[in-house]
Sequence to fold (232 residues):
Amino acid sequence: MESIRQPHSVINSYSISLSSSSYINLTDTRYRLKRIFSTVFLAGLIGIISLTSATSEAAPPTHANNNRAKNNPSANVFSEKEQPRGHQAEKWAKGRILVMPRAGLPAKAFNKFLKEHDGNARKIGQSDLYIVDLPEYTEERVIARLLQHPHLKFAELDYEVSSTSLMPNDPYFKNAWHLSKIGAPTAWSSSLGENVTIAILDTGVDGSHPDLAAKMVPGWNFYNNNSDTSDV
Fold:
């Protein structure tokens, strides 16, 4: 019986030895894999931190973009009706606005109010209009506050406007000496008088004239006390 059991015992020991060896090899492999994964993870983490840092350094000042809108609920100061024509396309001077106080506001009080917003006022000539220098990116926020002040006529961005003058296509314009005398071409660059009705006091008018026919409204003849305004 012993001669039979002895080989069996040896075989079992050999099997156990192989099993132990396999377990040791498997454990070692797992350990190596863990080290590889840890190294890769650490390298990736360092790369992400470096990329985030570089992106932060390259980004524009936060007060110039998102933070300005987030911290400034009144960033869109002007309603659609109040916005100047072509507001979205026009350029405006950074770091300054235009302000006009109402008559009677003491200069000291005006300057004190502007100082609360780090503003410095410069008067334009003999007018009541002031250029107010401000820290950049605060213009719209300050305007929103100034518009609530009862002693200010207006506060607005300093827009860039064209200085070109509108000239008429009338061949007789050069003979109309009075238009250049009153500076009409310069005024026409600002307004052509749309939707404005004016009254002319004269001996009458040629209602069939091509320059006037489509633009006349009913008048009154104070001499004959009737609506016939034709020239006698």
About this structure: The longest helix spans residues 2-58. The first strand starts at residue 92 and ends at 101.
